[in-house]
Specification:
This protein is of the alpha+beta class. It has a single domain, classed as Beta Barrel (Thrombin, subunit H), CATH 2.40.10. It has a six-stranded antiparallel beta barrel with strand order 2-3-4-9-8-7. The radius of gyration is 15 Å and the shape is globular. The mean pLDDT is 85. This is PilZ domain-containing protein.
Amino acid sequence: MDKKIYGRVSESLPATVVNENGVELHVIAVDTAGDGVNVLCDLYQRDAIVPGGNFLVGGRPVQLSISLTLPDGEGLDAPFRAKCHIAFLRRLSKERCMIGMRYVDVESQSLNRLVRYLKKSAGLNEAHWPI
């Protein structure tokens, strides 16, 4: 899914990233789009997510899992899960970083929840949504 179709939602949401070693890290998702998500983390979390700052390990991209809950605006929350590769790493301050993650595998139900969240956040009327 292309982020240009639905845009990017800049809303802070609690998220959990699981690295390749199975370590769970609690971060904040700050930008959610159709093609990926940006997360804020501290230096310890960054080092666990991006070991040594390398996006490639053994010649292949580092693969992570992310899960977060997408609010639907009606008091119901929808879980979203995806496997991701790292798109970028940016140091924001002495102790904070932003990591851009691009989705590489999203299960069908999670994709539907993501599309619904992005459309509602963009203010699109559900009656006009394509099937």
